[in-house]
From TrEMBL:
Acid ceramidase N-terminal domain mapped to chain residues: 22-79
Family: Belongs to the acid ceramidase family.
Protein's UniProt name: N-acylethanolamine-hydrolyzing acid amidase
PANTHER family listed in its UniProt record: ACID AMIDASE, N-ACYLETHANOLAMINE-HYDROLYZING ACID AMIDASE
Keyword Signal: yes
One family name in Pfam for this protein: NAAA-beta
UniProt subunit comment: Heterodimer of an alpha and a beta subunit, produced by autocatalytic cleavage.
Amino acid sequence: MLLLPPLIPILLLVIPISSTRTPPRYTIDLDEHPSQRWNQVIKDHLDYLPGVVEESKKYIPKPLQPFVWWVASKVERFFPPDTRLELEGIATQSGLPLGEIVGLNILYDIAAFDRRHIFGLGCTSIVAQNSAGRIFHGRNLDYDMTGLLKNITVYVDFTRNGTVIYSGITFALYNGVLTGQRPGAYSVSLNARYSGAYIDNILMELYTKFKRPVSFFIRDVLESQETYTDAVATLSNTHLLSPSYIIVAGTKKNEGVVIPRNRWAAANVYPLDMDSNQWFLVETNYDNWQKQGDNRRITAIQKLKELGKENFNEKSMVEVLSTIPVRNNLTVFSSVIEPKIPKVFEDFTWVWD
């Protein structure tokens, strides 16, 4: 029998070993009846869904829960018809209560207030423009329910008349989009921003009649706005339920922007600017005009400067996104998007196992 030196078993316990896999890919046909669109996605993930819903309840503060379940039970009064029918179809196919499905879908909106001490919710988004003018959008999605979400992460093409209108990375049970692209036009990702008290979210929910949870809003923008300019204007000025950072990349020179969102409109907008050598933007979960104490952002900036803009490409962005702590124990998936070349999104999206 081979005997290992005493130190080796210890090292095996502490050295992280990671692997990656490609998320399953699905087509959501927008010409199909909304209640049927997500059936295959749900069917393929039935074993994981009850655990995800049960875990999500732990992240809703107790004072908010009565309001959340009330809203969830009245879904038909709040959401547009297609959204409502999709959610009802997901509930029917999964066998889970509609209120729980709705609760999961609005979890970000009810949790996005000044509550960093309650649970970890992060993300890193990067827009970088190389010396040849190619624009890359990098994205790590970080979330506390990491292990559960990895099992239900899916790549989805939303089609009409057989043509892909937009694509996104999302989760079974979740019909919104937090990371997506409109092929040949622009890409969007959302990072959590913590601002104000939960009462601010409730007041905005009442004011907007709960018609714009942020993931539904981003999906609607991807579907309806055909250009980078129109997308940035809509994402900057529309009332939202909750604060957020919205990161957008386009296809032309300097088409990259970080939009720190208040509930009413953009708190600020800062773009790429090659003329002043601002060839990249890095957003985690802090306002850029405040003191930065986030090692993810600091590390990403250092790595980008080290790589430089001359030969920066999709593989360079992979290297940045994979660097610890930019990638960390909460990272569910990573994506690299180049809106001008839609296939990059397909080829460079992976789940961390």
